[in-house]
Amino acid sequence: MTTNEAPAAKTVxxxxxxxxxxxxxxxxxxxxxxxxxxxxxxxKLRSEGYAIAPNYEGADAVVxxxxxxxxxxxxESLEAIGEALNENGRVIVTGCLGNDADRIRSEYPDxxxxxxxxxxxxxxxxVHEAVPPLHDPYLDLVxxxxxxxxxRHYAYLKISEGCNNRCTFCIIPGIRGDLKSxxxxxxxxxxxxxVAAGVKEILVISQDTSAYGLDIKxxxxxLRGRPVKARFYxxxxxxxxxxxxxxxxxxxPYPHVDxxxxxxxxxxxxxxxxxxxxxxxxxxxxxxxRPAHQEKTLERIARxxxxxxxxxxxxxxxVGFPGETEEDFSLLLDWVRxxxxxxxxxxxxxxxxxxxxxxxPGAVPDEVKExxxxxxxxxxxxxxxxxxxxxxxKEIEVLIDEVDEEGALGRSKxxxxxxxxxxxxxxxxxxxxxxxxxxxxxxxxxxDLWAERTP
Length: 455
Ligand code: SF4
What we know:
alpha/beta; 5-stranded parallel beta sheet
């Protein structure tokens, strides 16, 4: 279970009812966007006086925030609902799988309520029904930045919901709807609060970060008497002033992305772009209906590197998409060698129920997908090994994530939490999570770096 409890306070005599707040358990599955949804729901519940139960037994009800993207994720979500019902019995389901309420009900008729993704109000109402809140203003103990499921020193900042693209393998627009950008002042106020609360790294997320503001015509909003535009460039410029590491995820290689690269060269935004390329073959990209697939991406990457030589690119790819030929796949491998991406994840194509791609001709046999996946990983590991070897001997900044008796573990500017590599400071226990230290790289492999702190 995922939990986020307020730090223990000094012992204070409390009225009877404050000492026993209603307790809600939380199981959060899926992507960072679902995690942000969970954070919002938990923040709202805590602001109303609910406590978050650390286990099933102590909970008066359990909220399961599900993922409904891949079939494997759906199966995991259904399993989590079943487990919560067995262990607790009073279960509210929300998140992407909530759009398939019939399926949930047919397997688990005893679920108390089912809501879809980002239906925060509906989830909170369902909790009210299941476990009535205590009405006491003294219970408003939530810090201004809200409650988060990430460690104290980094936080995801969701700038929009939904997506205007229609990639053929994806059902997210059907689940989450078209792009809905948050006003820039809301996003920036949240970012300021996070930094004021000690967050050192902000991870900007959405389904399509480079499309930010398109739906609201880049509208201006008021940030303490000052107009700010809901535009990708303007948002990055504002975030770059906050003094935290700012990392951009889910960006597409549109021409206007060029404008933010100088901010990376100037150290305002991290020199890092997470661009889910998914493939390189024009015919596969066309069949996938990927955004920006007609851009001359390698030329664009070369220009970005001219502006910011330090830039790290991370991406994800799908192999075995329907119709992918050996020639398409070889083209992808050549592209990966030439693009020199710092990090790349690779998925074997999996048909998602309801996706258009399921009806495309040319299904690739599983054993071919498997073989291509191994070939892809071997090429990427070689690319990554060479890039990381170039860091040996260099002094880099490291944001510390964890410390134990054996040393510290952190990340460089080129590594996002959870998905990228680590920097190991073996034997260094004189640091704390959230510290940013300088260290000289002593060793590298295809994923991680080993370094020693410099004075
Ligand atoms: S960009 Fe494509 S893959 Fe990403 S959410 Fe939108 S439709 Fe899905």
